[in-house]
Amino acid sequence: MDTLNLKKIAQNVRINIIKMLAEAKSGHPGGSLSMVDILTVLYFEKMNIDIKNPKWENRDRLVLSKGHGAPGLYAVLAERGFFKKEELLKLRKCGAMLQGHPDMKGTPGVDMSTGSLGQGLSVANGMAMAGKLDGKDYRVYAIAGDGEIQEGQIWEAAMSSAHYKLDHLTLFIDHNGLQIDGSNDEIMGVNPIPEKFRAFGWNVIEINGHDYEQIEAAITMAQTIKGKPTAIVAETIKGKGVSFMENQVGWHGKAPSLEQRDQAVAELESGEK
């Protein structure tokens, strides 16, 4: 698929994120928008999946460790065809399929229930180890936020990933520089991220997380690495695509009003951002 098609898919995904959050009147736009391009490449280009058989045992897996970014994952899954887009506007409604954090039991295409930050890499390790033990060749992907890697469990898991040589595991760090209470630097500095993962025995690739060619190339390179896991440190923009949300910490966990929804959708449809 060429870059223009991927951009169009990502545009649709971002529009649906805005619409679903406005309808729900709650949720997390900033970190959902920042990882859309990564998810788009994974689900439309790179992951070996079957939308007609979401639990296929040989499928590639994705663990969204930053579970509050669920709107981004849901919008991509719906765009890919795992469920009807009508479900998106029921986000966070009582009795609806799509809740505030991913639920592997209730949502087709969700491989792990997440939400408690810091735990996703441990789960991805387990999936990757199970694949090795079972002689399977599926790959496991995880996405963590940069604020999330302040959690100690991430680093315990990082040691394990390298120790067990989980070379079919790829971790994306959504490095947008902001978290719920402010910038990473203000709350608890996490830099230099690449050097930290290299010190823990990982292969590390640094990319622009909104550049489709760089994302694809990094995933392809990770597939060739033997004997160690790969961390892809993706520099991203929180709130990517919406002018008044970009790089604004206040949009970490606040839904747009109907007026703001219309403004954001108009911007995204025009392609101005």
Summarize the structure.
It holds the Pfam family Transketolase_N. This protein is 42% helix and 12% strand.
What distance separates the N and C termini?
22 Å
Radius of gyration: 17 Å
* Strand order in the sheet with the most strands: 1-2-3-7-6
Q: What percent of the residues sit in helical stretches (DSSP H or I)?
A: 40-55%
H/E element order? HHHEHHEHEEEHHEHEH
Strand content: 5-15%
> What is the makeup of the main sheet?
5 strands, parallel
Count the E strands. 7
Q: Give the total of domains.
A: 1
The CATH class name reads Alpha Beta
Identify the CATH architecture: 3-Layer(aba) Sandwich
Coarse morphology: globular
CATH superfamily: Thiamin diphosphate (ThDP)-binding fold, Pyr/PP domains
Oligomer: single chain
| Poorly predicted runs of 5 or more residues | none
Number of helices: 10
CATH fold category name: Rossmann fold
Family: Belongs to the transketolase family.
Pfam families: Transketolase_N
Organism: Propionispira arboris
Protein name: Transketolase subunit A
